[in-house]
Specification:
474 residues, alpha+beta, 6-stranded mixed sheet, 17 helices, 12 strands, globular, Metalloenz_LuxS/M16, EC 3.4.24.64, metalloprotease, mitochondrion
Length: 474
């Protein structure tokens, strides 16, 4: 199943318990060197990177391969290929039939899964430590020896078409797909992960094999282990099973396009449907890349805007000024601020959902007005609240070996290194209200916006009116 939800992109850290009962012992903190949990990396001769975080006391491990290729590595003609391949990965190899593969995984008691995003394709397994060698063998087999039989392709074609229908029923997914399509229009980053339905119907075996040949190369792959698998053991397994991978793929037109910086385009897309009963709107400016100096400042600024859900018991007290205002005047059912990063750009914005369709203009106006406030009037207290929430989110998101493996794989395949927890904590703690206001002034004030709106949106002002709000005349 494709990983499609546009969630907050949070770097992650680990918390460690400290002995004693001094005041300092109650301060939130991330893992220190004393915890012994460090990321180790080794690069094989063919360019494959092996990265691990070894926990001697862990009974299980997550191992997986993170590939620097997703839907962004496709062309208009082959859009949907990466996700199609993910579906076919478990349908049989030269060594194992689909039945044998399923039986082997079931007998081991492990879990085998995969997902596709705009920039990555991931295949991973969670297993007992003693079964890690067998799962590395399985992963290498499905990545290098998948049969891609015509009968399996035809079966999965129908499965993916049904999946596409289900995705189209999820309003939030549709809004964010439209947001990407308008913000990065006519570019690889703007395409959907599943691809257009016509492409799903037309994708051929040769296109699938070409995608593997062009993108599943050692220089674009990271073998990750988290849990009870020692680094040296995983390196040994990598040399045994992945040394035959080609070092580099052809730098063809699709590759060059995927590495070209995406241009953000101020624009809007609107799908009016008055029968829905709700207005669902995403607003975004150009965000920051994974390795941007502004990455953590963007996350703190997003956390200041905050989230809101009227159905929650703590709705009147969800922390941010915008949530308090929205609740007091009953303007929205919910909103979610987001800072989503890619290798060279990002989207920073807010997703709004309301059944007060005659007051959509008020809701959007006050959301943008909150953005403008951030340019000149941010208090130390709300910055500290946002920083505490951000660090807590990072801790909660690293619960388990699979989450740790995800963090290692994503960081290394995208930036070449994993930022350790202590460094993340120092960077977040160092952010001040002045830096937040500077970020907002550079990224929000008088900047173009991308707008995606679906539902009862008759009351949503035209693009130019909303764009003018980005430079208010106070």
């Amino acid at each position: 199943m494709a990983s499609r939800r546009l969630a907050l992109n949070l770097s992650r850290g680990l918390q460690t318990r400290r002995a004693g009962f001094t005041a300092a012992s109650w301060k939130r903190g991330f893992a220190s060197a004393a915890s012994g949990l460090k990321t180790q990396t080794t690069t094989l001769k063919n360019g494959l990177t092996v990265a691990t975080e070894y926990s001697p006391w862990a009974q299980t491990s997550t191992v997986g391969v993170w590939i620097d290729a997703g839907s962004r590595a496709e062309t208009d003609e082959t859009s949907g290929t990466a996700h199609f391949l993910e579906h076919l990965a478990f349908k049989g190899t030269q060594k194992r039939s689909q039945h044998q593969l399923e039986l082997e995984v079931e007998n081991l008691g492990g879990h085998l899964n995969a997902y596709t995003s705009r920039e990555n394709t991931v295949y991973f397994a969670k297993a007992f430590n003693s079964d890690v060698p067998q799962f590395v063998d399985i992963l290498s087999d499905i990545l290098q020896n998948s049969k891609l039989e015509e009968s399996a392709i035809e079966r999965e074609r129908d499965v993916i078409l049904r999946e596409s229908e289900e995705v189209e029923k999820q309003v939030e997914e549709v809004v964010f797909d439209h947001l990407h399509a308008t913000a990065f229009q006519h570019q690889a980053l703007g395409r959907t992960i599943l691809g257009p339905r016509q492409n799903i119907r037309d994708i051929t075996r040769s296109e699938l094999t070409n995608y593997i040949k062009n993108n599943y190369t050692a220089d674009r792959m990271v073998l990750v282990g988290a849990g009870g698998v020692p680094h040296e053991k995983l390196v040994e397994l990598a040399e045994q099973h992945f040394s035959g991978l080609p070092s580099k793929g052809p730098e063809n037109h699709a590759y060059q396009l995927s590495k070209k910086k995406a241009d953000f385009i101020g624009s809007d897309v609107r799908v009016r449907d008055d029968t829905m009963g709700t207005a669902n709107i995403a607003l975004a400016v150009e965000g920051v890349s994974w390795d941007s100096e502004d990455y953590f400042t963007a996350l703190v600024t997003q956390a200041i805007v905050g989230n809101y859900d009227k159905a929650m018991g703590n709705a009147p007290h969800q922390g941010s000024k915008l949530s308090g205002f929205v609740h007091k005047h009953d303007l929205a059912n919910s909103f979610m601020s987001f800072s989503t990063s890619y290798s060279d750009t990002g989207l920073w914005g807010i997703y709004l959902s309301t059944d007060k369709i005659t007051r959509v203009d008020d809701l959007v106006h006050f959301a943008i007005r909150e953005w403008m406030r951030l340019c000149s009037n941010v208090s130390p207290a709300e910055v500290e609240r946002a920083k505490a929430q951000l660090k807590a989110s990072m801790l909660l998101s690293l619960d388990g070996t699979t989450a740790v493996a995800e963090d290692i794989g994503r960081q290394i395949v995208t930036t070449g290194r994993r930022v350790e927890a202590g460094e993340i904590e120092r960077k977040i703690n160092a952010i001040t209200e002045k830096e937040v206001m500077d970020f907002a002034s550079r990224k929000l004030w008088d900047k173009d916006i991308a707008i995606s709106a679906v539902g009862g949106i008759e009351a949503l002002f035209d693009y130019q009116r909303l764009r003018n709000t980005m430079k208010p005349k106070f």
